[in-house]
Structures are given as C-alpha cells and as structure tokens.
Amino acid sequence: MKFSSSMIQLGMSWWQAWICVWLGYGIVAPFLVLNARPGAIFHVTFPMVNRTSFGMFGSLWCVFNRAAMACIWYGVQASIGGSCVLVMLRAMWPSINDLPNSMPASSGTNTRDFMCFFLFWLISLPVIWFPVHKVRHFFLVTPILMPIASITFLIWCVVKAHGIGSIVHQPSTLHGSKLGWAMVASFMSCISNEVTLVTNAPDFASRARTPSAALYSQLFAIPLSAAFVSLIGILVSSSSQAIYGKAIWSPIELLGNFLNDNPSKATRFGVWFISASFMLAQMSTNICANSVSAGCDLTALFPRFINIRRGGSIAATVGLAMCPWNLLKISTAGHYNVKDLYNTERGSWYWYTYGVNLRAYTAYIAGILINAVGFAGATGRTVPLAATRIYELSFFTGFGVSAIVYWALNRVFPVIGATDTFEEIDVSGYQTRFGGC
Fold first, then answer.
1. Which residues are paired to 335 by β-bridges?
2. pTM across the whole model
3. 324: helix, coil or strand?
4. Residues 134/204, Cβ–Cβ less than 8 Å
C-alpha cells in the first residue's frame, strides 16, 4: 500500500502507479525463484549457497552483513507492528489512547507507543521458538485472514465515502521524460523492497519437498498479491479523501480515525479484526524476512554456539535494544559439491584462495562502484544527471555489472569444478549417501 501511495504523491495517476507495482514485482519474482533454486534442490541455506561464490571464508562478510541487517530490520518491522497493536487496544479499551507518558522526550517515544511495540515484540517470541519447517503452519493464517480483512476494509471505506473518491479520477501531473523516470524509480523501489526475500530465499526453499514447490507458487503469487494489496490501498486512500477531506495513505492511521468520535461496538469490532489481521501479516513478514534469515546466518557464523532458534532470539533482542522507532523518524553451471560446502581443507571446491574467492569480491565491488556517484547524489551532493539515472536503475546496473565481471573472471581464471554444461547435480553424492532428495 505504501508504494502505490508514494507513487501517486509523486504525481502519477493510480493506474500508472499500479503498472509500476506489476512491473517491479513481476521483474523481481524470477530472481527470487532462481535464488531459491539451490536451496530447493540441494537443501542448503543462504550461507551455504554463498560459499559457492565467495568461498568458505570469503562468504563470512556477506553472511555477517545479512545477519546484521536482519537484526536491525527486525526491530523496524516490530515498531510498525506496534502501531497495529495500538489500534487493536484502542478498539478494546479506548482509554489506552490517553495513557499518561512517563518516558523522557529524549527516548524518542512515549509510554503508550513503547508498550504497544513491546507487546508486538513479546507476541512474536513464541513463533521464533518453533523450527523453520513448523513455522509454515503459522504462515497459513495470513493468506486466509488478509484477503478477508483487506476486502472488508475496502467495502467499509467505500460505503462510508459513498463512492471511491476522487483519487481514481485524478490525472497524472507528470509527462514525458519526468513521467518515465518517475515510473522507473517507482518500480525500482518495489524491486528493492523484495531484495531481502530474494537474498534469503534458499533459507525457506531448503525445506521444500520438491524443487517445483519453490517455483511456480512464488513466481505467480508475488506479483499477484502485491498488485492486489496495492490496488486496495489506492482505493481505500481515495475513499478516505471523500470521508475526511484529505487522503490518508496509512491504512493503520485510517483505521485509527474510525475510532474517533464515540464509535459503535460494531465499528470497534471491525477495527479490531482488521488491525489484528494486519498485525499477523506484519509478524509473518518479520519472521520470514528477518528472524529466520538472521537465525540461519548466525548459525553459519557461530555453529558451535548458535542454532536457528537462538539466532532468531538474538535478532529479537537486538531489535528491542536498538530503539527502532528512531529509525522511522554462476561459475559451476549448476554443479554443486555439497560435501565441500562444509570442507575447509585446501583443494576443496570452495577453498579458492585461502577460503576467499577473489573473483566474487572483484565483481561485488564493481557492482558497488557503478552506483557510488549516484548514491552520493541521493545524499544531497551535486552529481551528473547520468550518474543519478544509473543509480535509479541500481538493481539492474549493480547486478548486471557484477554478473558480467564475475562471468568474465571465471572464464579467464577457471575454478575447480567449472563446466560448460548446465546440470543441477551434487557431484559429491553427499545427498544420496545421507538421505537427501
């Protein structure tokens, strides 16, 4: 919902914003499916897949980077979930909105908001406790509740507004190249939003019973669900303009407004149900994108001391301690040697140069450098327009440059196990001997 709203605020019409959502999520879905493929076939997680490119020890930086970001974003997502809890509590006990504040201004929050954040954080802990293959039962709840809650919310808003409002009739204020680059920046933001899940796709795909289980369901569900949610967000926000005289782009803020002016019991129950559904959806996102990935990454970094459950608990602890509310103001052509993913002996496939694949790091840095000047422009510096345009296409420019450099270096400096024939097999026979698929 947020992406479509920000696009309309840029000056696009609703249908142009919707096209950007389709493009962004439609483009990123194949990347997610492809990155999940090794996990689904060889039953290995992101840290293990990373070793094939960066090496046994070279992969540690990437894994640490992903683990650190997962911990930070766990807190940020929990803070957003706290706003859902606040609306839920207001629907049950309206007086909670006037809870006296006992926290200093320097804390960046207040007693009411911190209590709601902490409750969301606390409710999430039992989900972290379960093994990854059992968490899927929790994820089944969200696909059932969210469509019901979203459609109910839309119908409710349209009835209150006596129509769908004026935003859907609002023409674009952008034209020519300005419109074109606004659309590029918009669908790129959709891609960026999904990159986290692309990265840790093997973590979940490693539990797939068959390779196809991680293929078609995600390939079609990602763009379809994103388009469905964004369309509802556009129509709900358009209706809010007719109800309140201004467009309210946050669905939680709009739900909170329904509780103003002595709402009926039916209204309070409706707000509670919808906000509870949103809270569960937020929790699913947090567990999927951050808790599980942090658990897998920290397990790979400290296998003697940490398992996935403990890693998820560490992410939750860091997310609480960091005060997140302040942040809100290709070389082996499909051939894997699964046994060598756990082998640190010299001569193993993924030992490379003392455990570091310099080809991968060269490609990694090249993908960063192509966007460095444009990134400086995004921070307020004056840079050439061409650099800004390259940065706006950063997913493609960064990925493209890294892919070309990595491919070229592997052609010039072949690695152990390199082959020109694409075939998804485990040449070590490790899975066959130890009960793999």
1. 425
2. 0.75
3. coil
4. no
